[in-house]
Queue: 3 jobs
Job 1
Amino acid sequence: MDEIIIKDLQVYAHHGVYQQETEKGQNFLVSAALETDIRAAGMTDDLGLSTNYGVVCRFLSAFLTEHTFKLIETAAERTAEALLLQFPRVKAVVLEIQKPEAPIPLPFGTVSVKIRRGWQRAYIACGSNIGDRKAHLEAAVAALREDRQCRVQRVSDWMETTPYGGVAQANYFNGAIAIDTLYPPEVLLSRLQEIERAEARERKERWGPRTLDLDILLYEDVVMEEEKLTIPHRDMINRDFVLKPLAQIAPYEKHPVLGKSVLELLDEVKMDGEKHVLSNNE
């Protein structure tokens, strides 16, 4: 990924734990490496196809002077988030905030924090078999579109499927959603559960009926196994009702553990696995 680099932008602001820091203020130095594609701008000499670093500098200065934080860790976190939300061409940012006048009673050059934050691609499985199934799924897509921390990129067809797991219940509509998000995996999970609750989701029985079910299938190349969250989704490789809609929107996305594409995984299920997909409902 290309970079636009800003070094040592001087900003006079009021961040700090101590009262004199927030009242009097001090100088901060801000550096940012903006990860973005500048090929089109370079080939055409058109600033409109790039991110104007002058505008970015003014934005950084204004944000840091208009807000006050105790910690430069917080200042960096909030500034990076605001920058990514403001400039749509920026995929990620490496941001460093230096505090050369920090109240340290020893000789030193500077203290700083440096973070990298960016938009991450995630794939979400969605399903519903209670009430207006299509309405529940579309409500989930709408909620993600309205969330500033998420950008919906693609949505599969809604496919009618038979139940999985042996519990007697009505057929489902299933689909998949591709999003770019600023949420880390655990926070994204919490956000998806909020959306489920808004659609009156109740967790009474494993593999039982539900108004809305949202699962993180893949999140970049993340591999994690925690008590509440496993990525990649543990059972996605066995479910044609997950893989078929996912193959519509990300056929060549690789499973980070198995190294196989979604299409390859779907072909394996078609050959040897259970068949649940009945139709597309567009």
Note: The first strand starts at residue 3 and ends at 13.
Job 2
Amino acid sequence: MEFFKTMFQSLHDGEQVNITICRTGQELTMSLVTDLTSLKDKGVKDNIKPLVLSGTPDDFEANFEDALKPVLKESSFVSNVKEYEESVEKAKAESDMEKKKKAEEKSQKDEFKKLVDLARKNNEAHKFKDAKKVLVKAAALPMAEKSVIKKVEQEIDQTSGFGSMFGAVEDLSDGKDTADTSKPNPSEDSEETEDEETED
């Protein structure tokens, strides 16, 4: 009987079959079960039972290899389930990473668009310095589009009269619309002014 050779050829790398042997009088009772500790599938764990063999030593010598086939087949199945579970976990992790990456990219694109819109709003209000400050912040974002930045810069230069022979347009920048969270927004300023007037 080439027991160990058969086991070696049948098991996948890392697979484990637990074997328990007990002598009762003139017979041996052997229990074989594939190791299921690495599996997450409760259905597989609950339905795979140990293979129990009983007989004399001569019985085992003559028939053990044939009796062993079911547990080796079972072991191969367990290995496939394990590989499947690992592939699912890997796919899920990669999917989560991809979702996170796309969400971050969308957030950055939204922020870029928000800053570009604010720069244009400042430009329309003749707040040219404020517009350029916002544009610098937009250009520093990872998802910044250089062509868009350049276009808005040209719009600001054109509106402000930069380089024009007719002279520059008065800059009305007040530092309020520069996406700078360290400064109070206009509504806060107006509330403070109203409070001061009320006190007076």
Note: DSSP finds six helices and three strands in the chain.
Job 3
Amino acid sequence: MKLLFQLFLQFFHVGVFSFGGGYATLPFLYAISEKFHWYSVKQLTDMLAISSITPGPVGVNVATFAGFATSGILGALVATTAVILPSFIIVTIVYNVLDKFQTNRYVKGAIRGIKPAGCALLSAVGIRLLFTSNLHLLGTLLFLFFIILSFFKKRDPLFILGFSALVGLGLGYFNWIGV
């Protein structure tokens, strides 16, 4: 029971402080991995990969996988509930007071401050993933190609994801057969 309570507290903390979307949860998830050893960095990387291709928000999916890795189905339910509960509470409060504070300069200032914090969290995740993943030259070149392409041509992200998946499958196949 103590483990589930600790799991709840850690993922509630993730839900409270990770502004900027699901990938912004990753610095907190790395910290949990290092502090509690409930899952390894390799497992977290795998969880992120699976969460990126499954339906739903990445942060919630990773919390579910991490909770499951820690304490089975009950851990998954606890971690998922804990990570979404802060957003639920905040949205409920904001909805009820939005009309009163919509033009408040302090609220506008807070929102202006949250945006760079979210960008910083996402940048930290990108840098961490860069240094903890096994880089493949062709994969890295493909990644850079699509970043450059996105500045000049607007492509559907599904096209980029699908093409990258096919290249990854091809590389995996050729690596598997020893070519």
Note: Residues 47 and 135 are 18 Å apart (CA to CA).
